Fold:
Amino acid sequence: MTAPFFFWFFAAIVVFGAVGVVAMRQPVHSALFLLLSFFGVAALFITLNAEFLAAVQVLVYAGGIMVLFLFTIMLVNIRRTAGQPYVHRQAGAALLVAFFLLAVVGGTIVASSRTSGLADAPADPAKLSTTTISRMMTETVDGKTVKTPVTEQVAGNSQAVAWGLYRDYLLPFEVASVFLLVAMIGAVVLGKRTMEHVD
Amino acid sequence: MPFPAGDTLLILPELFLTAAASFVLLWATFVSRPRERGLAFFSIGALAATGLLLFVSARMAGTLPRSAFGGMFAMDRFGLYFKGILLLVGIVTILFSLRFISVSPYPGGEYYGLILFSTVGMLFMASGTHLASIVVALELMALSQYVLAGYFKRETKSLEASAKYFVLGAFSSGVLIYGISLVYGAAGTLSLAGIATAFTTAKPPAFLVIGIIFVGCGMFFKIASAPFHVWAPDVYEGAPTPISAFFAVGPKLAAYAIFARIFFVGFGPRAGDWSAIIAASAALTMVVGNVGALMQTNVKRLLGYSSIGHAGYALLGLLAYGDASGIGLWSILVYLLAYAFMNLGAFGLVILLESKGYAGESVDDFNGLAAKNPWLAAAMLVFLLSLAGIPPTAGFVGKYFLFSAAMKAGWFWLSLLAVLMSAVSLFYYFRIARAMYLVEGEGTLHWREEPAVSAAIALCAAGTLAMGILPGPFVQFARTCLLPFGP
Structure:
């Protein structure tokens, strides 16, 4: 039974990192604590056999988004907040909202664990490593919609994600890639200096 | 192979247009400023070629409707009808933009590229039969448009329009997607056909109604109908005028395509839940749009409010979902074609007459147009008559069928309100007509100064008149373009 130990270990790292993000005075230190928190979440994904999500967590969050944060911190050149009070004056309101959120989320977890026994369900990684996916394959043959049941043994989480992205949702996935291209062009168009006439 | 190779054939037009748009962006980096016209003509050619490819791939697809990519995409006559109009809208927009962009300090390459990308999104919307593909296509269209609205970024109004459009658009997409998530929870699938079967076979949970309302609110925002219309006049006023013309027609048509598809196909079995909401929004929209337009002096704002009113009229068609003849749907199709012609034409005149620089277009710009150029004044008169719904123009034909569809569905008071509001609209449309014919103006205007815009206006005027004088073929054609899985 090593799973509970690793869960508590990495969960503690996640919470420690998250507290560090808000407790640090230097924005760069906050960013580094956020990185720690991201790694902890990635490790938690691995304990759940979601190795694809773990890799994405590291690549996208710890890699891409973190670099973006650090760039922003460097570019906007936040001045040292020496003279400012450590606790913001809206702290009271923030605390209230945070406790409200905690109550809602906690209440939901408690309520759902009572009804469905979610909390008692054993996290058995071995059972999760292969998943049987049965689905209806819809095809159009001569103008008629034909449905055939397909059953597949899918080993591991990354393969399941791949089936989803590259088969079931292939078309939206490709349209989304065009969408990202447009987002990039849009950012450049709106962000760059206006072109002066130089021909 | 999970998908048959023929599936790719069905999206060939969209693939081609995506490639053409990327090519425009690449080419733009090698083109000097005076030669940017080439990019515009290439874009027009690409849109026309896409239209040709639509025809070819529909022919090669065999019997329609055909579904592709696991029910994500459908090639049917309903989608093809919209795609044809949308491509035309793209071509007219680029014709409007030629001189507008070349005299501005802004580069043309990204501008034309974004128009093409936006059109790709709209084409995918017209064919989407799965809420996932519909939402992604919708966002592709919208994102290109947020950028186009703010393209003249030195102008505060343009940036303001972009920011408003972006924030409200993102918010409304959130509402739409939240509604979709509730629908998914109730139906267990996002495919429209699947949703329909789920709701006919089993009794859906109570929260489904909330999901349908949220999806409806998202759609109301996208077609700019009340009470979610507030963004439209501001965005139309602030955006570069050719882009305002594009916004007033293209996205609205595409949004109506998905609106009709989602509500007729997906939510068709639950029509009792949503018809009252649509009726309420239609009534409010007609009143707000037409009364709001009365007080406008800026032509772009006036046309913005008038387009809100028109969105309200078109909602009447959705109410006739239950009619076996399908009049609810084909009356919308006829009306939207008329709407495209007359709105693009009217915006074309605004572009031609802009005198006071950026976003200063007032009704006074039209002063004495009849003396300056009787042909252009006559064209504008045709568009105004059509917008007001007076025969023999396209607008009359469109409204006639929409109102009779609503009557057939039993919404008498709503049809009466629509006729009443059409009468109100005469006041503000004829303010422009009065300025053209009864007020003295100065200067001259020859069509040769703006050949591209004039050609586009002539095309729109010809379409408006042809539909008004000979509505038969248009109506017959629209009647063959109903939804394959319709009500």
Summary: Confidence is low (pLDDT under 50) at residues 118-129 of chain A. The longest strand of chain A covers residues 130-141. The first helix of chain A runs from residue 3 to 23.
